[in-house]
Amino acid sequence: MNLVCLDLEGVLVPEIWIAFSEVSGIPELRRTTRDEPDYDKLMNWRIGILREHGLGLREIQNVIAKIEPMEGAKEFLDALRAKTEVIILSDTFSEFAKPLMAKLGWPTLFCNNLIVGESGMIEGYKMRVQNSKLSTVKALQSVGFETIAAGDSFNDLGMIEAGKAGFLFRTTEAIRRDYAHIPAFETYDELYNAIVNAL
């Protein structure tokens, strides 16, 4: 049985941290997993910047509430879900993702959790499992699923390369160049056709 695993940010919705960077006026928060392969390093750095500026979960959630899916993302996801099972595998957090899932029609999402203090400040985070995307794909494969994956960042490469098919979507030139063996697409139509052909 086939199972499609999609990244969330950069594939279906804009990058949350970039949106928050623009609203908060803190340019350092534009850094994402497209720029930093080490997720722990990236998140600890982000938490430090938030603490330095006295910003907590509520401020981020206020920005997320205004984020809309990328143009065509819901239609792409709806069409894909009519063809096969789809899971969104993301390194984001359930505290961030809920309003975005509502706008995407409540697809299945596997992500992580934040550790939030009584003051509303983000004190840390709890990953579901190490290397969550690759670990999840391997677990799904161990119970009989054949996986097809698509994403845009360094943290998607493991799940993309581990399945029977994998694709890059609207990735950076550096990742596209360094992983030239992975088909890379810019439009939802291209990605949809590639996934359906791989089913």
Structure description:
It contains 9 helices and 7 strands; from the N terminus they run βααααβαββαβαβαβα. The model has no long low-confidence stretch (mean pLDDT 94).
CATH superfamily of the domain at 2-12 and 70-112 and 127-198: HAD superfamily/HAD-like
Strand content of the residues, in percent? 15-25%
In which range does the helix fraction lie? 40-55%
DSSP, total strands: 7
| The level-1 CATH class of the domain at 2-12 and 70-112 and 127-198 | Alpha Beta
Which series of helices and strands comes N to C?
EHHHHEHEEHEHEHEH
Report the major sheet. 7 strands, mixed
Secondary-structure class: alpha/beta
- Rg, Cα atoms, Å: 16 Å
The CATH architecture of the domain at 2-12 and 70-112 and 127-198 can be named as 3-Layer(aba) Sandwich
Q: Which strand order spans the largest sheet, edge to edge or round the barrel? A: 4-3-2-1-5-6-7
Mass-distribution shape: globular
Oligomer: single chain
Flag low-confidence runs.
none
CATH topology of the domain at 2-12 and 70-112 and 127-198: Rossmann fold
Q: Distance between termini?
A: 9 Å
**Average pLDDT value?**
94
Short characterization:
This protein is of the alpha/beta class. The protein has helices spanning 16-24, 39-53, 57-64, 73-83, 94-103, 132-142, 157-162, 173-178, 188-198, and strands spanning 2-6, 85-93, 108-116, 122-126, 146-151, 165-169, 184-185.
